[in-house]
Each structure stands twice: as structure tokens, then as C-alpha cells.
Design a protein that fits this description.
- The complex is a heterodimer of chains A (about 120) and B (about 550).
- With about 120 residues, chain A is α/β, with parallel strands linked by helices.
- Chain A has five helices and five strands; from the N terminus they run βαβαβαβαβα.
- Helices cover about 40% and strands about 20% of the residues of chain A.
- Chain A has a five-stranded parallel beta sheet, sandwiched between helices.
- Chain A is globular and about 35 Å long.
- Chain B is an alpha+beta fold and about 550 residues long.
- Helix content of chain B is about 45%, strand content about 20%.
- In chain B, the strands form four sheets. A seven-stranded mixed beta sheet of chain B has the order 6-5-4-1-2-3-7, with helices on both faces.
- In chain B, α1 crosses α2 (about 15-30), α15 (about 380-395) packs parallel to α16 (about 420-435) and α16 (about 420-435) packs antiparallel against α18 (about 495-505).
- The longest helix of chain B is centred in the middle third of the chain and has 58 residues, at about 275-335.
- Classes of the chains: A alpha/beta (about 120), B alpha+beta (about 550).
- The interface between A and B is medium-sized, with 25 and 21 residues.
Chain lengths: ~120, ~550
Amino acid sequence: MDNNRILVVDDEPDLTQVSTLALEYHGFKVDSFNDPQEALSKYRPGLYDLVILDIKMPKMDGFELYQEIKKKDNDANICFLTASEQYYEEFRKKDYLALDRNLFISKPIENEELVKQIKKMIKR
Amino acid sequence: MNICADYTWPSVAMGVEVFRKGLYELKTRGVESRFITDITKDNIEYCKELMQISELRHLDGIKGNFAICEKAYVASATLQEASLLQQVIYSNVRAILDQQQYVFETLWNKAIPADLKIRGIEDGLDLGRTDIIQSPRMILDLLTNMIKSAKTEILLMLPTINAFLRENRIGVIELLKKSATENNVNVRIITPSNDDVEKILQDTGSTLAESEERPENQKKGKGFEVQRINIQFKETAVTTVTTLVVDRKESLAIEKTDDSKLDFIEVIGLTTYSNSEPTVISYVSIFEGFWKQGELLNQLEAHDKMQREFINIASHEMKTPTQAILGTSGLLKYYPERKDELIEIIQRNAKRLQTLIGNILDVTRIESQTLMLNTERFDMRELVSSVIEDYNDRAKVSNIQIINKNSNSINPIFVEVDRDRIVQVLSNLLSNAIKFTNQGEISINLVEKIQDKEGKKEVIVSVTDTGSGINGEIFGRLFSKFASKSYQGTGLGLFICKSIIHAHGGRIWAENNNNIDEDKSSGGATITFSLPSAASADGEN
């Protein structure tokens, strides 16, 4: 558990701060970015046990970032933490992958529940 | 005695004493009579008198005259007042009498009652003729000739996709397009639609969107518009008739025998042509009814789409600060020593939520037209100064200076408006300016101007920033809902501002500064609004 490292990308600084503090308290190492392009340029393949992406972001949305990260690191374990339910349908329509609904965590979510879901995703 | 005579006859029959007497004698002798003539505006009074003598019917454009009784038949080419007829045809042969009696009966049955025609003329209705045509070739010619003869308007209603495809195959759609572009005819088509129909419409270069974008003044007399609606209803019998109305003067209703086939001639059934006003106007009103229905349907769909978009954006905007509040309050027990910092996050997001809820309620009030204004008279300079004061601290944090260009002015500028609402507008413009300016200055200018020739004054307030300017992509719809390029915002602020200013009878507009003054291309944008001045008429402020 101590070795688990997580990347959080969300354009809202308050939200990256909350996630970072909550996850660090539960023993994760966390890197976070508010700018998706910066997150991509600094991405290091193989470093993270889980990548958590917001979807609605300026410059590059979560789906694009997902694809770009996958290009760099096909094994990346990526999930979405989003306030927009509509995007799940949109994503499914785009036929990227056979993504299951479990890859989407809905905001708002309490810290403990978030940690529980993240642990589940890392185990897969 | 049966008489069938042209439009000149009533005036001769009733205006020339010898004929008049003769006809009245028929009545006193109890002779059963029937008259047919061509009733016109000019002979209408004579016709009314003829109706006292016998039953009278009307036929359009009767040529020549004949009379027939049990014993004799007489026909003449022309009638001349009180002069002897040059030529007549006379017969008392039974077979001729029978034949001519048959002709009269046929015409009698085709004729319409005189009072109907008279009422039509007196009410200004032009009762024309209605024909049933059975020859497919004739129908095809009539259809194309009617379209070619159109001067102002063509309405075409097609009941099925195949009807559209058949019309297209005989070149009707192309012809309609030509009428619209070359002869300035206003063409409207109602048709169900599918990919094939869309492709044809695209090839002829028409879309509904295109017609909507056309300015109002160009819409009259020129246009090619298509309403894509299905006019068949499951509950009632299926509509199978194609209707064409040209210039609101002629109509053609074409039945078909088998909709599955694509050959116009092969499918064509009974067809009714009419230039009778009541019939033509009925087709027009049916067409307009469906057209309106299509428009309402489009509006409803657009409204529905906007509603869904609104819910999506609003829910996203509500969940984001809620997530911050929920997560941060949970952190308080993990990190009690960072209490102050965490509470600040909670407060910031609670405020964001509060603003959002206020905005959503305002939009709801605006859209349900229940935005109430509590107007009062006050000095606008004082309002501007107090709003600037409220924003000064926030601006300084972002290295921005707010400049009040009126700080030295002496004369008060009175307005009579809802103070809180105008504060809301100015605050919104200021916080936008701060949001889109990294550093630099924001200036607020306030002037009173003569608005029109009658000397009515208006108060103009403008907020100019040196920020990033307004993104070209959203410039055109800046004041509509959801026109936001910012990822923190619902895009409701300027929509609310516009609605508040309009409710006060003012205007609001935006400019990018480099477009105003190229020399001073400092960048940034200026948003200006106007309000009616409350200065008294004699110029006393």
C-alpha cells in the first residue's frame, strides 16, 4: 500500500487539493495537475498505480488525455472522477474501448468512499 | 321554357321592355321555366330580377344563346338590344328538341345556383371553377405550368417520402428552386424526410437553417423553405393527396393509386383543379396549419435540447463545489491543525454554490417572466463608486487596478431603476473583467447622452478591461445562455445581465477593444449598457 502512487488531474485547484490530502492521509503518494497538457508532458509511464482524470477541462478534456496517456503507456490504469454523468454515454458512443461503468466515479463523493473505490481499482 | 344565354342576356331580357313583358307573362301563365346565364358584377341586378321569374343558375363563360320549349328550339349567336336578330337556328323536329333538351339538362346540372354566385360576388369572393381531371399527361402539364406561372408564392404539401421522390423525378423540386431563385417566388414545401430527401434538398441548395438565418427583410418574396414533418396520422385515415397552391389563386389536389411506385404518371389518380377562392383558401389554411405545427415542433425540440443542456451544465456546476465542500469537511478530522485553510476552501465553494443557485433562480424568473423590478430614483455615480469599492480588494489581489473615470464629476446622473439588479449587472461585468484580466486595469465610464431627436436622455455605463478579449467563437452569442469559454462558470451571468437591462428598457453590447481603436490596441474588451435617464424634462437633474 505504501508504494501505491496516484496521478490526479482536475482543473479545479480546490478539488486536486482535497483529493491529494485525502489520499495522502490514507497512505498514497499523490501527484496532481490542474493543467491537463502539463500533466501529459510530465507523465512518466509505469510510475502510477492509478490515474484519476476529471473530464470537463479546458484545452484538453479527460477523454483526449486518456487517449494520449494510453499512447505513451498502454498499460496505464486510468479512471474518471467526474461531475458529469452525460459523459459516460458520450464516451461509450465514441467506441474507444469496451469501458465498463466502474471506471467512472461520480462527484460528489466522500473521502472514505473514494479511497475504497480507488483500492478496488488498483487491485484489478 | 328553358333558356341558356351569355352574360349580355340578363340586361336585354330585363332592360328591353318587350322581352321583359314576355318573360313576366310566362310567369303569369304558369309556364315552368329554368334559366342559365353567366352572372357577373355588371349584370347582377338584372339577374336578381330574373330570379323573380324563374329559377336561375350560373355557368362561367357561356357562349351563344338558346331557348327550348316543348315545341321549338331557337338559337342565336348574339343578342342585340331591341334590334332584330340577324341569324337564328330554329327547329321543331322532335329528335333535335330531345337532343337540345339533353344539352340543356347537362348544362343545368353543371351550373351553380344563382344566389350562391351572387353572394360570392357581393362578398367579394371570386367563385371560380373546379374541375376534375383524369388524364395523367394533362395533370403533369398542369402541375408544371402552374409552377412556372407562379408570381409570388408556391405551397407544396407532400404526404409521403415516395411522393417527394416522384415529384423530384419529374423535375418539380428543381423547378421550384428555379422559381425561388430566378422569379423571386416564395416557395414552401411540407414533406416527410429521410436521407434521400435530404440529399436532394442539399443538391438544390436548401436547408431550413439557411432560411432562418436570412434577415427578415429578405424573407418576403424570395425563399425556398422546407418544413420536415410527417402529415400522416395513425389515428385518422392516411393522407395520400399531394396539394399544390400557386399564388393563393389556384390549387391542385392530386390523388394517387399506389404510393409504392416511383413513376408519377403511373401512380396518378383523380385530380382536382380549382381556382375557386373558398377551395384554394381552404388548402392554404390546411398548409399553414401544418407549417405552423412544424415550426412549433422545431421550437419545442430546440427548447428541449437547451433544457437538457441546462440541466447537464447546472448539475456539473453544482456537483463541483459540493465535492469540494464534502471532501474538505471530511479532511477536517484528518488534519485538525490545518483547520483555517480548510474552512476557507469550504467557504469559497459554498459561496460559489450560492451564486450558482442565485443565477439559476434568476434565469428561471427571467424565463417565466416573473422578474420583478423595485425601481427607485438615485444618483448612478454613487452606485458605480460603491460597486468599485466592493471590488477593489479582489482586483488588487490579481494585480488589477479599477479606475473610476467619473471620480471628479460634479453633476449627479439620475436613474430610476431597480438598484439591487443594476448592482448585480455591474458586479457581474466587473467580476468577468477581473476573471479575464491577468494584470492591468479595468476602467468604468459613466456618461449621460441625448438619445433621440426628442431630447430623451440615456445613461451609458461601460466597463473596459485589458484582458484576453472576447473569444471570437462565442462573440455572436455572448449574451445567450451557456455562452461561456470559462470552465468555471455556467455561462448564465451575461444572459442575466442582458435580461435585467432589457427589463429596464436599456441596451447592452460588447466590443473587443482592438476593434474600437487600433492605435491604442491594448487588447481586452468593453461591455457597455444603457439605461433610461431619470433627469427631469426641463434639464434639471
